[in-house]
Amino acid sequence: MPMPTRNFILHELDESLATQLRHAAFEPGHAFHAAQSTSECLSLAKRLHAGVVFCNSDPREYQALLSEVKRRGLRLPVVVVSRIPEVSEWLDALDAGAADYCAAPFEHQHLAWLIESALLASQHASV
């Protein structure tokens, strides 16, 4: 029996960072879809039943996305992605409501854990 596809949205990530993330997080059955706006991101997430959105670390971008997710009452984990790890950026993202934060260089084990944790947290939020 084929493994069901897990869909993930890459929101406003530049191509280099998106490629690194796709490569490090890849597992059979994972599909990554790019979105260039909040409305496109949320439309794709709904249509594809996306598990997690990976959003760039520009506060304007992730705050707009998180606000819209909250306004619509969605249980959609948003992970903020950065090129360089910054503690203050990480804390700001979590304070804004992000499920998590990750920075390059990406490691498969860490991303697998992060995805599973985000999915589990969103499932518990729906109970």
Task: Write up what this structure looks like.
- With 127 residues, the chain is of the alpha/beta class.
- It contains five helices and five strands.
- A five-stranded parallel beta sheet has the order 2-1-3-4-5, sandwiched between helices.
- Strand 3, helix 3 (59-71) and strand 4 form a beta-alpha-beta unit.
Low-confidence stretches: none
Classify the secondary structure makeup into a structural class.
alpha/beta
**How many DSSP H or I helices?**
5
SSE string, helices as H and strands as E:
EHEHEHEHEH
Beginning-to-end CA distance, first to last residue: 29 Å
Largest sheet: 5 strands, parallel
Number of β-strand runs: 5
What proportion of the residues form beta strands (DSSP E)? Answer: 15-25%
Strand order across the biggest sheet?
2-1-3-4-5
User: Roughly how many Å is the radius of gyration?
Assistant: 13 Å
User: What's the overall average pLDDT, rounded?
Assistant: 93
Taken from the alpha-carbon principal axes, the silhouette is globular
Helix-residue proportion: 40-55%
Overview in brief:
With 127 residues, this protein is an alpha/beta fold.
Question: Helices and strands in order, then pairings?
Answer:
Layout: E1 6-11, H1 15-25, E2 30-35, H2 38-48, E3 52-56, H3 59-71, E4 78-82, H4 87-96, E5 100-103, H5 108-125
Parallel strand pairs: 1-2, 1-3, 3-4, 4-5
